[in-house]
C-alpha cells in the first residue's frame, strides 16, 4: 500500500536539478486573495449596496508605473454579489486609504471629509505662517493667551473641588430630611385639628344655649343678691336711727 500523504519522494542517483527548466511566469501575474471590502460602495450596474467588511475572493495585481515613496500600489478586482459586475479599486498609501476605480461608487463619508478639511486648513495655516511672520507672531500670542485662560479655568475648578470636599453632604441631607419630617408633622397636626373642629361644630349649639341659660341665671342671682343687700342696708340704717332717738 502506497503512502497516503506522500511526504517523502524518491530521487534517483542520477538526479541533476540544473537540468530542470525554470517556469516562465507572467511579468504582472494576478493572484487570488481573500479580502474584505475596505469601504461602503454601490454598484453602478444594478445599484446593489456592498458594505464595508464583506468578504470577497479578489484578484490582486501590481499597478505598473505607479509608486509612492517606493511603496508599491496594488489593484484588486471583485465582483458584485448581485449582478457579478467587476469592481476594481487600488491602494492609496499617501492617504492610508483605498481609491475606487471602476464598477462602483463610494458612499458619502462625513467623517473622512471632515478629517480632510481639517488637514487642509492646518496645511494652509502652516503655509501662511511660513510666508507671513506677523501672522505667526499673532497666532503665538493668541495661543499663549488661550493657555493662560485654560490654566485659570483649571485653577477655578480645583478651588471648587476643594470647597466641595469640605462640605459634608450626608449631614446636609440628614438635616433636610429632619426639616421635611417636622413640616409633615405640622401639616398633619393642622389637618387633624381642622377635622376635629368640623366634627364638633354640629354638637356645639346645645352647649352654647346651656351657657346662655347659665349666664341668665347668674345675672338673676346677682340682681337678687344686690336687692337683698340694699334691703339689709336700709334696715340697718333704720335701727341705728331708733337707737339714737332713745
UniProtKB/TrEMBL annotation:
GO BP term, pick one: generation of catalytic spliceosome for first transesterification step
One term of GO molecular function: metal ion binding
GO cellular component: U2-type catalytic step 1 spliceosome
Coiled-coil stretches: 108-154
Presence of the UniProt keyword Transcription regulation in the record: no
Biased composition range(s): Acidic residues: 236-246
A Pfam family reported for this protein in Swiss-Prot or TrEMBL: Saf4_Yju2
Polar residues bias (residue ranges): 201-212, 221-235
Protein family membership: Belongs to the CWC16 family. YJU2 subfamily.
PANTHER family (UniProt xref): SPLICING FACTOR YJU2 (PTHR12111)
Record text on subunit structure and interactions: Component of the spliceosome. Present in the activated B complex, the catalytically activated B* complex which catalyzes the branching, the catalytic step 1 C complex catalyzing the exon ligation, and the postcatalytic P complex containing the ligated exons (mRNA) and the excised lariat intron.
Record's function text: Part of the spliceosome which catalyzes two sequential transesterification reactions, first the excision of the non-coding intron from pre-mRNA and then the ligation of the coding exons to form the mature mRNA. Plays a role in stabilizing the structure of the spliceosome catalytic core and docking of the branch helix into the active site, producing 5'-exon and lariat intron-3'-intermediates.
Record protein name field: Splicing factor YJU2
Protein species of origin: Pseudolycoriella hygida
Name of the gene encoding the protein in the UniProt record: Yju2
Amino acid at each position: 500500500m502506497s503512502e497516503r500523504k506522500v511526504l517523502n519522494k524518491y530521487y534517483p542517483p542520477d538526479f541533476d536539478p540544473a537540468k530542470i527548466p525554470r517556469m516562465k511566469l507572467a511579468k504582472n501575474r494576478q493572484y487570488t486573495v481573500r479580502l474584505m471590502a475596505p469601504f461602503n460602495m454601490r454598484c453602478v450596474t444594478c445599484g446593489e449596496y456592498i458594505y464595508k467588511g464583506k468578504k470577497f475572493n479578489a484578484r490582486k495585481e501590481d499597478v505598473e508605473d505607479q509608486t509612492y515613496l517606493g511603496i508599491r500600489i496594488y489593484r484588486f478586482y471583485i465582483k458584485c454579489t448581485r449582478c457579478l459586475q467587476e469592481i476594481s479599486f487600488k491602494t492609496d498609501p499617501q492617504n492610508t486609504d483605498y481609491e475606487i476605480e471602476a464598477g462602483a461608487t463610494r458612499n458619502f463619508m462625513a467623517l473622512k471629509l471632515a478629517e480632510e478639511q481639517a488637514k487642509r486648513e492646518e496645511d494652509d495655516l502652516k503655509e501662511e505662517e511660513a510666508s507671513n511672520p506677523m501672522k505667526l507672531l499673532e497666532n503665538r500670542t493668541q495661543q499663549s493667551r488661550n493657555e493662560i485662560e485654560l490654566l485659570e479655568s483649571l485653577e477655578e475648578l480645583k478651588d471648587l473641588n476643594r470647597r466641595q470636599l469640605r462640605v459634608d453632604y450626608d449631614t446636609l441631607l440628614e438635616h433636610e430630611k429632619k426639616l421635611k419630617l417636622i413640616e409633615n408633622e405640622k401639616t398633619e397636626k393642622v389637618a387633624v385639628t381642622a377635622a376635629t373642629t368640623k366634627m364638633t361644630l354640629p354638637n356645639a349649639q346645645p352647649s352654647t344655649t346651656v351657657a346662655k341659660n347659665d349666664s341668665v341665671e347668674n345675672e338673676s342671682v346677682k340682681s337678687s343678691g344686690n336687692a337683698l343687700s340694699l334691703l339689709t342696708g336700709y334696715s340697718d340704717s333704720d335701727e341705728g336711727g331708733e337707737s339714737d332717738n332713745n
